[in-house]
Design brief:
The chain contains six helices and two strands, in the order ααβααβαα. By secondary structure, the protein is mainly alpha-helical. It has a domain at about 75-220: Ferritin, core subunit, four-helix bundle (Ferritin). Bound molecules: fe (ii) ion (FE2). The site of fe (ii) ion has 2 residues, from loops.
Length: about 260
């Protein structure tokens, strides 16, 4: 049997009751006091399995009492619209962060270093935007939900393929992903313009950043009057799997003798 030093064992014996105390007190009193209240984002037991099913539904809009009021009227339609718009944006930004890092690590090919560095820049910017959006939720009196299962269940961006990623594949992927997120935020800007202009204004800044990232990816394969630049040369002269929806500034599929925007 393994011999543990006596000092280590003594420390462990002290730590167990210290850790168990608050958890037991919470489970004894907390739930019985408010049996009908909707679950709060922060009320999930840290001991619950992280893959445990969480019921789907509207995003939690916790009631916070004794606070100075800011933002739209709590509980109003405008408030719910604003919370949903911010939460949806947060989820997409977090999904982008995961995919930016995945591609930052695994991108291969002629442009690997350019993309490796560009994606790191995009990741830093996206992290900053995600934090601003999450904290706007807190400012108007709602919790923000950055849990893994919320990102997986709520994001509209497809999952990026695993393994090494071809440089052309990365360009195509993010040209599409940034387009999806940009369009969603544009809609959220309109939705929140009336109930909460401050949120709408904040989202305009986020959209400006995401649109810039979209251009920075699109520019790798964008056709010009002197170079039709299909991007195929980045992929052993095979067509790139770009999305079927045509990003802004890109010639429609079939023009310029390219199938750039057609799925294989
Ligand atoms: Fe890195």
């Amino acid at each position: 049997m393994t011999q543990f030093p006596k000092r280590l064992l003594a420390g462990t014996a002290l730590a167990i009751p210290l850790l168990a105390g608050p958890v037991l007190a919470q489970s004894a009193g907390g739930q019985a006091a408010q049996p009908n209240q909707a679950p709060r984002a922060d009320s999930i037991s840290p001991r619950a399995g992280i893959r445990e099913f969480q019921p789907l539904g509207s995003y939690p809009t916790n009631t916070v009492t004794n606070r100075p009021f800011v933002g739209p009227q709590e509980g109003s339609e405008g408030y719910k619209t604003t919370v949903a718009a911010l939460q949806r944006t947060l989820t997409e930004l977090q999904q982008l962060q995961l995919e930016q890092k995945q591609a930052h690590w695994n991108v291969s090919g002629t442009l690997w270093l350019t993309l490796h560095e560009l994606l790191q820049e995009h990741y830093a910017g996206t992290s900053k935007y995600a934090d601003m959006v999450a904290e706007r939720l807190l400012s108007i009196g709602s919790s923000s939900d950055g849990r893994a299962h919320t990102i997986v269940q709520g994001s509209s961006i497809p999952e990026i393929p695993g393994g090494y990623l071809d440089d052309a594949q990365v360009i195509a992927w993010f040209t599409n992903a940034y387009k999806i997120v940009g369009d969603e935020i544009r809609q959220s800007i309109k939705d929140t313009n009336e109930p909460d202009p401050t949120t709408s204004n904040l989202l305009q800044g986020v959209e400006d950043g995401i649109d810039k990232y979209q251009w920075q990816m699109r520019a790798f394969v964008q056709a010009t009057p002197t170079d039709r630049n299909t991007g195929w040369d980045l992929n052993d002269n095979k067509p790139i799997d770009l999305p079927s929806n045509t990003p802004a500034g890109q010639p429609p599929a079939g023009q310029n003798g390219t199938q750039l925007n057609q799925r294989k």
